[in-house]
Design goal:
It is built from twelve helices and no strands. It has helices at about 1-20, 25-40, 45-50, 55-80, 80-100, 110-130, 135-145, 150-175, 180-200, 200-225, 230-260, 265-289. Helix 1 (about 1-20) packs antiparallel against helix 10 (about 200-225) and helix 2 crosses helix 11 (about 230-260). The protein has one domain. The protein is mainly alpha-helical and about 290 residues long.
């Protein structure tokens, strides 16, 4: 894990340098490649995870039905209210990011964990959105016709930060977490804030989504499915996920072509991520519990 942390920090600093040296076209191109490849891949084996350890075919079919129902519900929510769907995407992603990043470090009780993970993710999104207000405004207006105001993002930032500080204080004073771990997380958040400030919206999101979330999640999934983490098990994971990855990419391109009012490719990226984030979050919750 320490080796991966070094890898994660190296590529974060490298892409931070890219964001300084190059313009939005290069940044967004790198981001799209990362999201369409590793980002989609890390959620492509959800059905394999659901099937893991299930002796009953009926049990798997029930889980599959729930999984498909969640996807259909997300699509319907987007069609009925794009703004509500964006809010759901942000909150679901916030919890999912927090659970993946902090799940091994913070284990108090289900309610405490929920609030901490959610606050962590919302704090990240508020930093990202505040650093890229113009791009957020452009995407939100294209997808929903309305947008988040600067005041709303600032208030969200302050509330989530306050909750994190209070809960972190509780963890430290009750000796449920070491000070060095808290200080590392503060350093990581400061680094990500700097990255978000200098990069485009989509690259900033991709840096966290890929190197801080998707790859660690993928490695955890490999270990869960195959019982170990080896080169062979990783390759088996990729082989099994490939067909679902191809279907997702084709679906992404089709959506981009058939929804005429969407001109920004980044907008359609967020639509696809919303459709798969909800069921994937449910699968990861079941895997971890």
């Amino acid at each position: 894990m320490r080796n991966y942390q070094n890898f994660m920090l190296f590529f974060t600093f490298f892409l931070f340098w890219v964001s300084i040296q190059f313009g939005d076209f290069v940044e967004d191109s790198v981001a799209f490649v990362l999201i369409v490849s590793l980002g989609i891949l890390h959620g492509a084996n959800d059905l394999l995870i659901l099937a893991k350890g299930k002796n009953s075919k009926n049990s798997f079919l029930k889980h599959l039905l729930v999984y498909l129902t969640i996807i259909i519900t997300c699509v319907l929510i987007y069609l009925l209210s794009p703004f509500v769907s964006i809010l759901l995407f942000v909150f679901l992603s916030s919890y999912h990011f927090g659970e993946e990043h902090l799940g091994d470090k913070i284990k108090v009780n289900r309610f405490f964990n929920l609030i901490f993970y959610l606050s962590y993710g919302v704090f990240l999104f508020s930093i990202l959105f505040y650093a890229s207000l113009a791009e957020v405004d452009e995407i939100m207006r294209e997808l929903t016709g309305i947008t988040f105001t600067e005041a709303q993002i600032a208030i969200t930032f302050l509330i989530s930060l306050s909750v994190l500080l209070i809960l972190s204080g509780y963890l430290y004073f009750t000796k449920k977490i070491l000070l060095i771990i808290l200080l590392k997380e503060v350093f990581y958040l400061c680094l990500l804030s700097l990255v978000f400030k200098t990069s485009s919206l989509i690259l900033g999101f991709a840096i966290y989504f890929i190197f801080w979330h998707s790859i660690p999640s993928l490695l955890n999934q490999v270990a869960f499915i195959y019982g170990d983490l080896t080169k062979e098990s990783v390759m088996n994971y990729i082989k099994k996920a490939f067909i679902y990855w191809v279907i997702s990419v084709f679906g992404l391109l089709i959506l981009y072509k058939i929804i005429p009012e969407i001109n920004l490719f980044s907008s359609i990226i967020f639509v696809l991520l919303f459709a798969v984030t909800a069921p994937h979050t449910w699968v990861m919750f079941k895997m971890k519990n």
